[in-house]
Amino acid sequence: MPIAIVVIGIFILFLLIARFKLNAFIAFILVSLFVGIGNKMDVLKVVESIQTGLGKTLGGLILILGLGAMLGKLVADSGAAQRITTKLVDKFGKKHIQWAVVLTGFIVGIPMFYTVGFVILIPLVFTIAAATGLPLIYVGLPMLASLSVTHGYLPPHPAPTGIAVMFKANIGKTLLYGIIVAIPAIIIAGPLFSRTIKNIKATPLKEFLNPKVLTDEEMPNTFISIFTALLPVILIGFAAIVDVLAPDGSKIKELCAIIGNPVLAMLISVLVAIYTLGLARGRAMKELMDSVAASVSGITMVLLIIAGAGALKEVLIDSGVSKYIGEMLQGSAISPLILAWLIATVIRICVGSATVAGLTAAGIALPLLGTTGTSPELMVLAIGSGSLMLSHVNDGGFWLFKEYFNLSVKDTLKTWTVMETTVGVMGLIGVLILDVFV
To answer: What is the pTM of this model?
Structure first.
């Protein structure tokens, strides 16, 4: 019976979001109430669980995501993203243009939310394709594969960070493992796959062909652009490496644990960006703070949706459903990583949003950790991979790609959907290989 209630709840979630277009946060709260009451919890106890889940989830996330949004906005507004793109294209040349855009997508995608990165970089892709005479899909899809992978796999993006908080996973290790898994996934889903679909003609809409392009003098230099965009990764990644190699109790390990703390790493990165991408280039502090304020207002709903998923997770625990699922799956011969991936995939197909799919799957799969001893970091990546699977007509990213590239639904399915599915499958394969070693 508890499983039936959860399945019906997920189906209701799908209907509310996809069919009736209800706001995802409201949908999560309604489904949380349904699941709790359906499992014979007192109504006020369900409300208490929802409040607890909201607080637990946002408490660990709001600083990281808020600071991440600020950094992404500063990187975009300063021209650093454009500088990274143009410099890499110049260095790689026409013959290796795909690798240039892959690196651009990866570097810019880490500090920037997917939609923001898409809107910032796609006009540059159109410009590159026009200048080189190469097919638009051939140039654009590798960059989008990078953006998608960073969105689904890597902190400080909302879903992987939220899942890491739920699973109490080490964010530094999650980031390192995620980068290892991401590299082959991006290569296969991006440059290699896009070479098989050169015959698909994409003709971008005219309004996207005249983006605002900054002059050389208006952009920061290449080193500053790349260093500032990647600073969170440098700090968190370096701390994770030192944690493995340095002896316990050493001063260097203690220092790196401080600067590699995700909140402090993001704070340091934002302060550095305010100077390197703003004050040092003559921008006024008021202008910079207006930009920062705009970035935070843009993620309010994202934070609420993540909090809503945390509320559902808490209701699943307090109602005893998580314990029931854990006991039921305890004797299963299927790897918990595969189970978690499958749960995320099914929810992704039904609901559309990768963030909603990942966070909902995390709440359902949480008991698998306690009963199997699986690495929480690899569980984060398995769910992140599943959350990217089979993007289709109920996913906003599907339509964003279709409209910007001016493709038919059929061609969007043959390009975007196959790319996203390849990313999801390769992510699972990478996680299962890593599981042998960690």
So the answer is: 0.75
